[in-house]
Amino acid sequence: MSSLQIDSIGSGSARTHLVSTGTVNWVILQSGEGVTLIDGGYPGHAGAVAESLRRVGSAPEEIRAALLTHAHVDHLGGLVKLTGAHDFPTFADADEVSHARREYLEQADAASIVPVLWRPRVARWLAQIVPLGALSRTGLSRAQPFGDLTALPGAPEAVACHGHTRGHSAFLVADGEVLVSGDALVTGHPIQPHAGPQCLGPIFTHDPAANAAGLEALAGLDAPVIMPGHGPLWRGRVRDAVATALR
Predict the structure, then answer these.
(1) β-bridge pairing 90-92 and 234-235
(2) What is the pLDDT of residue 226?
(3) Residue 109 sits in which domain range?
(4) Residue 126 scores a pLDDT above 60
(5) How many angstroms separate the CA atoms of 11 and 91, rounded?
(6) Which CATH number fits the domain that encloses residue 71?
């Protein structure tokens, strides 16, 4: 698990951690009451999620809940095994719950990947993610819609940002100091040649126009730090990151 990179914001028992693996990220909200996970990587990342918790002084037994930015396999997969072992609830936007339960599946498939398979970056990415369980279709049958999240460790606030999937959410955490942007706004991806704020393309995004509209809504937020679903932590105004991504 040495490839994990953890960037932390906050001090004492109230800390927010971005965990990066090179293929996908997740976020740990930590307080004296335990932890809230935001996303959980691919199915093969369940052990890495547990290791990341130990590295920040916690443990899977301290998970009080998990939140989904969206239900693609690289954000939901690791939670399937963890919820089975530790029995914590998982929440998503009401429009994303059916996706999380796998009543339908809305993500890249062979038909969308094959046309770009000739690109070396795509082939290398597939070689990384298939062993992590990228082909899994297992969902979270007990996923629930968001209720009042303020009682959870880290007191996250869900911010609807639909488009990447029909029920994609971002989250404001750390008293509004951090925007967890999921895949609506990323700062890199293994198949992308450039880094920095950007939108994932139509291969991965259900409704690019809706995603762009969702980003325009995020642009009014004042959080000075962005923790994305892919790529490194980004410091700067959300408005500037959104403008760069939309260009």
Answers:
(1) unpaired
(2) 98
(3) 5-246
(4) yes
(5) 26
(6) 3.60.15.10
